What we know:
- The protein is α/β, with parallel strands linked by helices and 704 residues long.
- Helices cover 41% and strands 17% of the residues.
- β15 (423-427), α15 (430-439) and β16 form a beta-alpha-beta unit.
- Mean pLDDT is 83; it is low at 44-53 and 170-193.
Amino acid sequence: MKQIILLAPTHPGVGLISVSMGFVRALESQGVNTLLFSPIQFYDASASDNISGKVINSDISFEDAETLVSEGNSDILLENITEQFEAIKNTANTIVIKGVLHRNNKTLAAQLNAQIARSLGASVIIVTNSISKSSKEINELIELTAIPYGGIKNSRLIGTIINQVEGPKAIQNTNILFEAEHENIIDFSFNNFSKQAYKNLTVLSKQFQLIGAIPWDRKLSAPRVIDVIKVIGADIIAEGQIKSQRIFRISIFARTVNNLLSSMTPGTLIVSAGDRIDILMAVCLAVTSGKTIPAIILTGGYELSDTVKEFCAAAIRCGLTILSVPTDTFHTAIMLQNIKIPPPSDDSDRIEYTKDFIARYIDKEWIKQQAAKVYEKQLSPPAFRFQIIEKAKKAKKTIVLPEGNEPRTIAAANVCVTRGIANCILLGDIEEIKVIAKNHAINLHPNIEIRDPSSIIEEYVEPMLKIRAHKGLTEIMAREQLKNNIILGTMMLSVGDVDGLVSGAVHTTADTIRPAFQLIKPAPSVKLVSSIFFMCMPEQVLIFGDCAVNPEPDAESLADIAIQSAESAKIFGIEPKIAMISYSTGTSGSGTEVEKVAQATNIVKKLRPDLLIDGPLQYDSAIIPQVANKKAPTSPVAGKATVIIFPDLNTGNTTYKAVQRSADILCIGPMLQGLNKPVNDLSRGATIDDIIYTIAITAVQSTI
């Protein structure tokens, strides 16, 4: 069953691009195969929503559309749009149409959206925002937008999404706050919040529902330093971390240093006259002391002496960017106040955050109803991530994080506790962790547990001796080893004080898993411990194994890895179709390695006839249907494999990293399988999201 939904804005600035991305993400989270279609473009096709997933951008510009309408050729325009729509409509079960954005001609945009909806047979959701608006004003906006469709009671109109709920008035003029003190809205229930806050909307009915109420969040509009540089054309004196540091607010510094310290909050872009070297030095000292100040703009075109640059060197190494503009402070402030920076196409972190955040506040019950109308489902990466989070929430497990003083880990733990994904214990000095959190603008949730390792080591000396005494471990040695937070965390897991462990943001894989092998031990039913990665490809999630643990598995070990990986796939909602990878497909090649893979495949078939498996298969034969039809036309797995088993660690590790980096995809893992209790490793380049999902996976694992 095909669903076609058009999102129609009430006025400029409602955040239609972001809402469109999040709405698609919400549908995908329920397994709905969804495509985003932009029928008319009035901006560069490389803009942010160009990477919002499966998206088709029309080649019809707003200028062309405007010309055709003014010349009385609306029919030609609609025919062109319909032609492009017909070419793509069968590529997904649900087509979300991003309505025409208002520019200079609000009436034209509204009329075009209504005509497009009628031409394509689309239902309509009206998108608005609540910034500085009363319920009465929101009602009026929605009713006015509904007029071209025949009024609010028209059956084509199915509901509204209200964006930027409880946003500060300051964002009417800019996406970045000037000296505003407005706390982020961390979380709230859709039903409890939105329907209470907007229960007086007279436009709502059984037919026309409130589908989403999305809170304002500073992070949605937080550009990177490099994005601001591109807009204002600033000269770079010192680069710092221009591609990773984000700007949440702007502060104009013209006071004495003594009165400025309170304004040096994390994420603040500081603007100061270029001859105020005292302010520059104060900022540098703040950065070197742990404050995350992303950048300072020096106005007036002044040059810095070599002595000053040398003084700033330490702060620059800590990430501070120093910029210069020729304009004075007043005109620079005006320029900054008016900038609006949508997520650039290369800012994947901001885009992913936007999609996930907005999807969270679309009514889940409404989405489930839509999903029920669709016959074909797929486990897309959004659906996979959603399922992981939901399963973790239900599990209510406690995960220990030995790298408790690592900023990404602290931030991830905070998100997990705030959203109810898992209870988290941070190991580390309590005061140090609190300072790090403050310096990185992390408002620690009161339910996050921080434990000072020195205060609990003694609890685990005796249990550790019971496990390792036969290996010659003494009390003194145990006490000394437990000073290692990973070993301490592993012992907490071993005795059942926690349900899982996640580490590796700053430690090696060996550092994380070696204590697990020694203290947790493999499960009795498995022959070896192995690992898998969840590869979040554009269309689906694949499992790769073993890419982290076993260097040269023999045929029996390879079979065991395949069976373990298939079972893990089932746990996480992936139907296992196992491809045993080799440099040969079928009998096209020969050699020891090919024979090993063939033997492992036969072992799995004998031990587990219920599993769908084939091999040897080349990688392209395993995942590409067109190749599979030529090389392995009778294979039940080729072209549709979901579990990819590599013949050795060298092949597996190289392949997963090549796929991850070349395709720029989210890769979750390695997840260890075969241990009595879950211990999982992180990449040292892990993002906050990577850590969050690894914590969630660990929580789900612990329920097995």
